[in-house]
Amino acid sequence: MLVVAYDGTNYCGWQVQINGITVEQVINESLSKLLNEDIQVIGASRTDSGVHALGNVCVFDTESRIPGDKMCFALNNYLPNDIRIQYSKEVDDDFHPRYRDSIKTYEYTILNRRFDVPTQRLYSYFMYMPLDVEKMKEASKYLVGKHDFKSFCSARTQVKDTVREVTDIELYKEGDLIKMRISGYGFLYNMVRIIMGTLIKVGLGIYPPEHVKEILEGKDRNLAGPKAPARGLCLIDIKYL
Description:
Alpha-Beta Plaits
């Protein structure tokens, strides 16, 4: 098992695809070179193009005798600077990173000030209009718990069951940065970014906080706000239960 951190700016997401280079592809190629085997990893979270991660998880099978806890050191020598393995260990043969019960935590960052800051441009969503963080906090409370999040799911999803449980949402401000940290047992396609886009509308005064409850109960994607840009989103960690 590998715990992977990456800057998603230059990648077309995690999952291998035909229209561009992905994080999974780079890890597969690097592992194959290191181990002289055809390696195909299985990832826990298929992050979108431009989304970052500090703690995504993937697994793979190998005949190598490199100890599990040393694999991270060996593999990092083959990876580009924007992908780094943070931790590695051997796991049971039946360990599947997507099907094991886990709690995922994401963080979304907004830079809320008059002018953008170049050093923040790849890792936050710039908003020059002031946001009311207290109202955003109030609105976010309606999302905690087990709900049908159909209103907060991309219409392109192929998932039939849109019920998910959000265990915690924390919204806070650090200087010019507004951060939302959200944890749950699983998330729908683009769910966190749509939640953030909706809370931004609350922060701008377009929606009252209690309207988020109505959006949730409406079970209609057209009721929620726009999808916030990918660059502000980071997968913080995945804790297996």
